[in-house]
Write a structure and sequence with these properties.
heterodimer; A: about 130 residues; mainly alpha; 6 helices; about 70% helix; B: about 190 residues; elongated
């Protein structure tokens, strides 16, 4: 449900003298979902690197021979996913009132799945023979 | 001993990592007590400015920590120097110029140390990267909503969840980093 400035002032009368303008919740939702997407992509790349030698080689390419290995590709792709999804959803939801609670819970599930996938006993289950 | 490596390891773990973990306490206290009736109008403005600066500094520290860790310290940790069977690690009590920290841990020449690489380092190198994502989003939310956070308990809780998540990720990575450095220092 959308929170208006009038509702905010009702809850916290201290805000009244600040004369705050209305702000849509879309950008806030974008900030939440992007964190979940970034963590999920990082976890997913851990599994993919383990499951496929060609994916691992692709992820290592991002290290530019600096000795970082596949971690380079995993973290660069996760960072691109984080900032890319932030920019994309911010642009899409710029003037919209998105259900931030729903988006937050989706982000939370993505984040938890990402962390589970990052655990060595989990991603090693997918190791190629 | 390569002092450059020692210095970067200290900058990564002791300066940047510790700065992030210490700032967490201030940010959490600031958000927790940001409730109607507890802060005046003037206090709201001051608190929001302090939260923006604090969370912004935490986000920058988190990014700096993972970037220095991944791109500077980690390549030294994972050098493959000791051979397929880690033969150059034989008899060592700590890593050397012929036996990197990773080789040393995997060789088990100084006790059962393999776990510290196979679980500790492999988890640490990934989980640490959750911290900048979560800290940046928490910072952007305070930057965007500003004083409105005081009137929206659910939003404040969501920001605290992101902040605590960032702290937990950094704390796990930091704790494993400290234990691994104690057993197998980068040198």
């Amino acid at each position: 449900m959308k929170n208006s400035t009038a509702q905010d002032v009702q809850v916290a009368p201290e805000l009244a003298p600040l004369n705050l303008p209305e702000k849509p919740d879309g950008p806030g939702a974008a900030m939440m979902i992007s964190a979940g997407i970034g963590i999920f992509v990082l976890g997913l790349t851990c599994i993919l690197a383990e499951a496929s030698a060609s994916t691992s080689t692709f992820l290592e390419w991002w290290a530019f021979d600096l000795g970082v290995g596949a971690l380079a590709g995993k973290t660069v792709l996760a960072s691109l996913a984080y900032f890319g999804s932030l920019a994309l959803f911010w642009a899409l939801w710029k003037n919209k009132d998105v259900d931030v609670k729903k988006v937050f819970y989706i982000a939370l599930v993505l984040g938890i799945l990402g962390v589970i996938a990052m655990m060595p006993p989990v991603f090693k289950l997918f190791a190629a023979e | 001993m390569d002092l450059t490596r020692e210095v970067w390891a200290v900058i990564h773990g002791l300066l940047l990592g510790t700065l992030f973990l210490l700032a967490f306490g201030g940010a959490l206290a600031g958000l927790w007590s940001f409730r109607p009736g507890l802060v005046t109008t003037k206090g709201i403005t001051e608190r929001v400015t302090r939260l923006k600066v604090g969370l912004g500094a935490m986000a920058v520290a988190a990014w700096a920590t993972v970037i220095t860790g991944t791109w500077l310290v980690y390549p030294w940790y994972r050098e493959k120097l000791a051979g397929e069977e880690y033969e150059l690690c034989a008899g060592l009590a700590v890593p050397s110029e012929q036996c990197s920290a990773r080789d040393f841990l995997k060789s088990n020449v100084s006790g059962d140390t393999e776990y510290w690489h196979n679980f500790g380092m492999e988890f640490k190198e990934h989980i640490g990267w959750a911290a900048p994502f979560l800290a940046t989003s928490a910072f952007l939310l305070v930057l965007y909503y500003g004083p409105r956070v005081i009137a929206r308990p659910w939003l404040r809780t969501a920001i605290i969840v992101l902040l605590v998540g960032a702290f937990a990720a950094a704390a796990v990575a930091g704790a494993y980093g400290a234990f691994i450095t104690k057993i197998a220092p980068i040198s």
